[in-house]
Amino acid sequence: MARSPLLQLSDISLTFGGTPVFTDVALVVQPGDRVALVGRNGSGKSTLMKVMAAIVDPDSGNRVIPAGKSVGYMEQDPDMAGHETLGDFATSALDASEAYRVEMAAEGLKFDPDRPVATASGGERRRAALAKLMAEAPDVMLLDEPTNHLDIEAIAWLEDALSNTRNAFVLISHDRAFLSALTRATLWIDRGQVRRQDKGFAAFEEWRDTAWAEEDLNRHKLDRKIKAEARWAVEGISARRKRNMGRVRALQDLRAERAGMIKRQATAALALDAGEKSGKKVIEATGIAKSFGDHTVLRPLDLKIQRGDRVAFVGPNGVGKTTLIKMLLGEVDVDAGTVKRGTNLAVAVFDQARAQLDPDRTLWESLANDPTMAVSGRSDQIMVRGTPRHVVGYLKDFLFSDLQVRAPVRSLSGGEKARLLLAKLMAQESNLLILDEPTNDLDIETLDLLQDILGDYDGTVLLVSHDRDFIDRVATTTVTLEPGGVATVFAGGWSDMVAQGGLTAARADQDSAKPKAKQAAEKPSAGTSGGLSFTEQHRLEKLPAEMDRITAEIAKLEDFLAQPDLFTAAPVKFQKATEALVERQQNLAAAEEEWLDLAERAEG
Fold first, then answer.
1. Which of 396, 421, 446 is the last residue of a domain?
2. Whole domain around residue 380: which residue ranges?
3. Rounded to an integer, what distance in angstroms lies between the CA atom of residue 176 and that of residue 186?
4. What whole-number distance in Å separates Cα of residue 97 and Cα of residue 425?
5. Where is 375: in which H helix or E strand?
6. Residue ranges of the chain with pLDDT lower than 50?
7. Stated pTM of the model
8. Which H, E and C letters describe 266-323, residue by residue?
9. Burial degree of 224 (CB within 10 A; 0-12, 13-18, 19+)
10. Torsion, CA 467, CA 470, CA 474, CA 479, rounded to 10
11. What does the alpha-carbon distance between residue 298 and residue 325 come to, in Å, rounded to a whole number?
12. Which of 128, 166, 185, 493 would disulfide-bridge 475, Cβ 3.0–4.6 Å?
């Protein structure tokens, strides 16, 4: 029996400032749909969601919602005028008997409903807007980056709540793990067109790469056909003395078709320069502890960070992750213990709050007026890793247009602000990077590129993040911080930490109200094997992908080392690649052995 759509868009077109955003978009949201909405920063994801929510009117086309059905949108910057507290705002559309839903959501999302609106932070306002939507439970929930400003426990609560809802939802997020766990279909915005695949986000990248490969093949075939027809048009005239005007017109049509092909947007030209090497020992903390009055931030902790390490700090919001990093850098004094820092440290900071960006300055001024980047006597030049560059040219590397260069920072989207901050960060020579929630608002392709350059960065990285997938891809060490000042150091990334019984396995199930996961940890379920614990079963499921990733890295390194003149032309690169190859071969062997052991135990 066919289901009636909950929301339908047809022939939607929209133009901003003369530039088409969408053309002839059609989409349908059905009951029970769990849809990932993906696309590059600036492709129009949030705009399309606002069209779906009837917040933005299209230039043409129709939006249809059946009678009795409702669509709700999580506002990025909610208008709370007329409401005294966050709770007043969140319950404004509910009956008094339904207010408990907001209280439940507030507990899971970690905000205080009694907080006055006037003193609430941007993150608290967003969490209240999310709680409002979850409590109202419309037939279609439109969620634009709901995990921004949520810690890992709140993300787990939201993931569980969405996995158990019967309502349809459309979800924009940079968090791969969150998208993969929740979605069953994908809407992809690409150059003004919207495509749909009835598979979740986990299948998106393969779908995208296949589509692009087919597009490149068709473009290549068309170029060859145009070349052949053009040769005929030139060479055939002298032999026949008369043009075949039908073929000439066909050639013109082919050229028009080729010109109409929309070029894919370039990838941001991200690059990092570690500059002068730091000493091998970057930071060595011994027995460091910190309290503020009666509040214990950190109990005694030993932590050794060496050059090249990528250390992720994870834990609930407000637990002290940023304070710990400031202690390691010497910006906050320790109450006990010692911190020894290595030589030649050049620190660069990516700030979650974007405090380095003045909203009233233009993008040009943000770079040219920065004393660390200014070139004496030249207002149009900036210093980029020791080399003068024109401001506009450098900003174009980060996908900013000529019009945006002279626009104020406040006009940028969240993803564009993150890219501007990356532009400032990557202009510096550094050997110690501090990345505080770098994944917020960035599109997945820019995250992929950031991950790649961090892999090649010949310095040290300290990372604060709640993005499980990004931590897995980047971190070599994970430090968990828990309320009460307990810090624990684990080898590896997020999955490794969980497999070793870290905070997610030990307490997130309990604290984030996920009864199904808790039951799975206590006894076998249909999805687990009686011989393995919940965390071991999770590890068994993750290992094949990890082994595939390591195998692919080994293949790339072997191809790189196969260059005949590499040893003589670049001996340092040859040595590093050789060491990396040996390390990955060892990691692969260990992963294969672990998988065999877990698989045998699972079979009983």
1. 421
2. 359-421
3. 13
4. 50
5. strand 374-375
6. 1, 238-243, 506, 508-529
7. 0.70
8. CCCCCCCECCCCCCCEEEEEEEEEEEECCEEEEEEEEEEEECCCEEEEECCCCCCHHH
9. exposed
10. 20
11. 12
12. 493
